[in-house]
Amino acid sequence: MIHSLFLINSSGDIFLEKHWKSVVSRSVCDYFFEAQERATEAENVPPVIPTPHHYLLSVYRHKIFFVAVIQTEVPPLFVIEFLHRVVDTFQDYFGVCSEPVIKDNVVVVYEVLEEMLDNGFPLATESNILKELIKPPTILRTVVNTITGSTNVGDQLPTGQLSVVPWRRTGVKYTNNEAYFDVIEEIDAIIDKSGSTITAEIQGVIDACVKLTGMPDLTLSFMNPRLLDDVSFHPCVRFKRWESERILSFIPPDGNFRLLSYHVSAQNLVAIPVYVKHNISFRDSSSLGRFEITVGPKQTMGKTIEGVTVASQMPRGVLNMSLTPSQGTHTFDPVTKMLSWDVGKINPQKLPSLKGTMSLQAGASKPDENPTINLQFKIQQLAISGLKVNRLDMYGEKYKPFKGIKYMTKAGKFQFEPEGRVLQREQSWTLFHFLLVQK
């Protein structure tokens, strides 16, 4: 299965490696570095890279590449899912998954990786089970280990590993019993200058924080479960009941976990919550250009849009920009040509705008097309797909827990394309359709 794991930072330095079977030379990562150089962005590095004797499978999270090396063909999503579990485990153990934190806790990292894989095959991937095997690092425990020479490895095998519910430890007790669920949706969209949606989809997850005594059996039902498509469940979910009744029935792990992830790709179900009016023009025989952007709410069900930021990569010919924002702050880097505008909250009564002029290089030709505008935002207490939890019930225990549901929508890759670029894309699609018909 998995022979080795390499952790690579954005600069291309291997700062940690772990081998389970034979030691694989670091030179195998040269194929990964070549793919990294060809990719314009870190997210564009291919997740599967074949080499003459190995396959390299990678995920990019928290500015770190987690690269697994395998020698035989295996289902790639199986390995990629394991790599995501590794990242989630590090984040749960250390609070944050970053290069400095991993280096500071390298002993615990190696101990955790040794338990997560047995001879290259996944063994223990549930965080609350791992915490019984390997104690999370604390300042006191670190000092004691330094003085006594002991490790964070537990003395006994977790009881959960021997039960029919391997994701939950036994004998759990809490003074305050509570179960909270976060429905988080990330919307990706490309919108043309006229405001028409070219493509839009929603990636959603339901994250849970369950701290309940004993062995509770939970059911979670939705008002509109048919919205959920391409659903991926935590192993605790009883899949047959979901297929027949569209109800989530499960015995939850203890603590934080991801209950499910889903995908909404039907564009008629994807509401666009914001709009951007932009007027970016360059004069033919002048070294000046006009820049104007206005951001406003569109379909937010009365919710406030927060954390709005606008970013745009300006053409190379732009030397400087003289802009005035109606709210927030903006910066323009004359070297990278990146314009950033931190808007904050959107007030529907007074829409935020950014207006001004652009200075172009003398004698430079007019840019072929206007820049793309990238938007980031978040909306609290709103699932943009319309998904709503109906009720949460608990069986098997007699106490009444505290229950809560929160919703949040945020932007993923949310882009407003200039008119020329959209037209070019439509022409390419027309040509593709023509060739398909001819064939």
TrEMBL record:
Top-rank taxon: Eukaryota
Topology term for the membrane: Peripheral membrane protein
Gene Ontology biological-process annotations: anterograde synaptic vesicle transport; endocytosis; intracellular protein transport; synaptic vesicle endocytosis
Residues annotated as signal peptide: none
Keywords, ordered alphabetically: Cytoplasmic vesicle, Golgi apparatus, Membrane, Protein transport, Transport
Intracellular or extracellular location(s): Golgi apparatus; Cytoplasmic vesicle membrane
GO cellular component terms given for this protein: axon cytoplasm; clathrin adaptor complex; cytoplasmic vesicle; cytoplasmic vesicle membrane; GABA-ergic synapse; glutamatergic synapse; Golgi apparatus; presynapse
Keyword Membrane recorded: yes
Family from the record: Belongs to the adaptor complexes medium subunit family.
Name of the protein: AP-3 complex subunit mu-2
Lineage per the UniProt record: Eukaryota, Metazoa, Chordata, Craniata, Vertebrata
Designated gene of the protein: AP3M2
